[in-house]
Each structure stands twice: as C-alpha cells, then as structure tokens.
Amino acid sequence: SAPKTLLEIKDLTSHYGRIQALHGISIEIKEGELVALVGANGAGKSTLLRTISGIQPMSGGSINFNGQDLAVVSADKRVFAGISQVPEGRQVFGPMSVEDNIRLGAYSRKDSAEIAADMEKMYDLFPILRQKCKQAAGTLSGGQQQMLAMARALMVRPKLLLLDEPSMGLAPLLIEEIFNVVKRLKKEGMTIFLVEQNAAQALSLADRGYVLETGHVVLSGPGKVLLNDDKVKAAYLGM
Ligand code: ATP
C-alpha cells in the first residue's frame, strides 16, 4: 500500500508582530520520506520549521500531523506526539556532559532499559560522542555539537525529525559526515524534513524538495528534478 501522509500543511501563515513571514504554505510529507526545504537567507525556512514544532505561533492555515490537528497542541505535547527538532545553531547545554545532553532528549520517555539501548545506538551512529561522553558539551567542536544535537533529538524516537541547517558553519568533511548520517537514518525508515542552504547536497539526497522564497513555496518536486531546474541552478547552486 502507498505510504501514508505523516505531515500535511495547508495555507499556513505566520507573523512576527505585523511582519508576515509565511504566506500560505502548503507542504506534504509522507512516512519514510526525506524532504528538503531550500531557500535564501530570510526566506522563512526556520520560521516554517518552528511553526511545525510549535515554538513559533501560526496565524492561519492548518498543520496536521499523524492524523492530529496541531492547532491546539502545545510545543511540548508535539514532542510526545513524535516531532523532534534539531534547532539552528545546535543549542546544546554547554556545562553538561555529552552523556547527559543525550539523555535529556529522552525526557518524554519512561522506558529506562530502552533508553540505555538507544544511547548505545547514538554512540554507534556518532562514535566520537562515545569517546567524549564525560566531557562538557561546550568543549566539543561545531561538528561534534551538531552530532550531539542530532543524537539528543533522536532520543525522542521521533516519527518526524526536523533538521534546521545541520551543515551550517562546518568544514566539508564534517558536512559529508553529517549528510552520511542523514542518509543512514533515511535508510532505517526515519521521516526527515531537512532545511538547508546547502541546496545541492540537500536536493541530491532528498526524495522531494520545496523551494521557499519570501515566505512562499515557489517550486516543488523530486529532489533530482529540482537539482536540474534552471531557476534553482541559477538562484541556489551558483550556476
Ligand atoms: P536563515 O537561514 O537566515 O535563518 P530563514 O529562511 O530561516 O533564513 P527565517 O529566519 O525564517 O528565514 O526568517 C523569515 C523572515 O522572518 C525574515 O524576513 C526575517 O527577517 C523575519 N524574522 C525572523 N525572525 C524574526 C523575529 N524574531 N522578529 C521579526 N522578524 C523575524
């Protein structure tokens, strides 16, 4: 049977005071899909992710997740529902150990044996975090903090993983490492919404993509099709 729709956004609008950041966004993500969202600085990518996780209020339209209307669901309840976001700029807790940061991601769960098993999984996914598990998170490099933020988000056992610019500020080798993990998660069946300025890499990995411009979706389609679109090439791939 066809995969079911996990996230359905219709005519979504969002404002910062009187400034409208999202102008009627409609987006759909099916179970198991990796969907990329690309666009220039200020296009509204982070705003869209934050309306999904509930940190940013919506002013119109609807967000349906797993059959549930999110309009009346608070941000913390959305985590319980299975939405986990890796925020832009990582936001790990610097003075806390790597281990404690990862464990923090499991706060919505009570299954301690499975939490321990999932921590082992995170250390398999990101071996450097095992080596540094007792260190303060603030002492990690930018790339390692990105891995830590991803591990923390995965401890939720999310149905939908929201990744906001995971490659930002990282050296090419680390970017590759992060994208390899994204590939592996996809292979394991995780549904992922990936926001990236690094449009070429994001679209080549994605099943489908959306292009956002000043709060509007201006293009959508299979990742490979967008990658070969002349407008996308000119605007986002520097060609
Ligand atoms: P970036 O990659 O720079 O984060 P983005 O595509 O994620 O860009 P957003 O951060 O979502 O874009 O911003 C969308 C619009 O909303 C921009 O015009 C921005 O100036 C505005 N905006 C974002 N945050 C705020 C805020 N806290 N107050 C007022 N306006 C904001």
From TrEMBL:
Keywords: Amino-acid transport, ATP-binding, Nucleotide-binding, Transport. Belongs to the ABC transporter superfamily. This is ABC transporter. One of its GO terms (biological process) is L-amino acid transport. Residues 7-239 form the ABC transporter domain. One of its GO terms (molecular function) is ATP hydrolysis activity.
